[in-house]
């Protein structure tokens, strides 16, 4: 078997609650504007239009509990999200079968260089410079679906330094988890190790160095992240 020409990069892998095993990450899909109130606060019509997705990189997912404030931005925002981890995949997955591919869930953040994202939007360019930077997706421990059941409702909230900023319910998602899986599978071949960040409720806003963010999702371990 041929050797690799350089040292093999480390595989991104995440902790699983109550287990010594790790969840290997293959791809990260992120849905945009999936809560009506957040769509409104971002200046968009919340009517149910076809979903759209962008991607982060597997090693953007970070369970360390620290978020280094990124360079080239003075307006970095928090976005609390439910992360959905897949154990299997395929193409053209029917909605009715989609949740059978879920391995588990975790509380997560989609940190965003909002000023850079906004500049890219105005130019009609991709968002990755605002979304897919290093350690831009803090994530908590994964809870397997056998423990949690299917998470189709429950509170999702975020506070900064103890002050509430975001609160919603998973049942407010415009596109539900099975629909996201099914839609993505029509355009990509999904597989075990894929992660879907399922959108954020209203209340996104800026953070500064020294802030402590706390994300809570019903049925999951909380996620506490310090901005450093």
From TrEMBL:
PANTHER family: ACYLPYRUVASE (PTHR11820), FLUTATHIONE S-TRANSFERASE (PTHR11820:SF90). The keyword Hydrolase applies. This is Fumarylacetoacetate hydrolase family protein. The keyword Metal-binding applies. It comes from Candidatus Rhodobacter oscarellae. SUPFAM superfamilies: FAH. Keywords: Hydrolase, Metal-binding. Residues 28-228 form the Fumarylacetoacetase-like C-terminal domain. The lineage of its organism: Bacteria, Pseudomonadati, Pseudomonadota, Alphaproteobacteria, Rhodobacterales. GO terms for molecular function: acetylpyruvate hydrolase activity; metal ion binding. Pfam families: FAA_hydrolase (PF01557). InterPro entries: Fumarylacetoacetase-like_C, Fumarylacetoacetase_C_sf.
């Amino acid at each position: 078997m041929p050797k690799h020409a350089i040292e093999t990069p480390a595989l991104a892998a995440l902790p699983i609650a109550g287990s010594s095993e790790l969840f290997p990450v293959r791809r990260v899909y992120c849905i945009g504007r999936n809560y009506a109130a957040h769509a409104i606060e971002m200046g968009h019509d919340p009517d149910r239009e076809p979903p759209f997705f962008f991607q982060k990189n597997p090693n953007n997912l970070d369970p360390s509990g620290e978020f280094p404030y990124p360079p080239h931005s003075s307006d970095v925002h928090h976005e609390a999200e439910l992360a959905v981890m897949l154990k299997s995949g395929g193409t053209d997955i029917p909605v009715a079968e989609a949740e059978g591919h879920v391995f588990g869930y975790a509380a997560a953040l989609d940190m965003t260089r909002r000023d850079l994202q906004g500049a890219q939007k105005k130019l009609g360019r991709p968002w990755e410079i605002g979304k897919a930077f290093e350690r831009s997706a803090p994530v908590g421990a994964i809870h397997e679906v056998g423990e949690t059941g299917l998470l189709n409702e429950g509170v999702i909230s975020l506070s900064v330094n103890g002050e509430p900023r975001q609160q919603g319910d998973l049942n407010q998602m415009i596109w539900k988890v099975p629909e996201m899986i099914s839609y993505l599978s029509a355009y990509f071949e999904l597989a075990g190790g894929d992660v879907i960040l399922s959108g954020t409720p209203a209340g996104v806003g800026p953070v500064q160095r020294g802030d402590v963010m706390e994300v809570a999702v019903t049925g999951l371990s909380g996620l506490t992240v310090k901005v450093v």
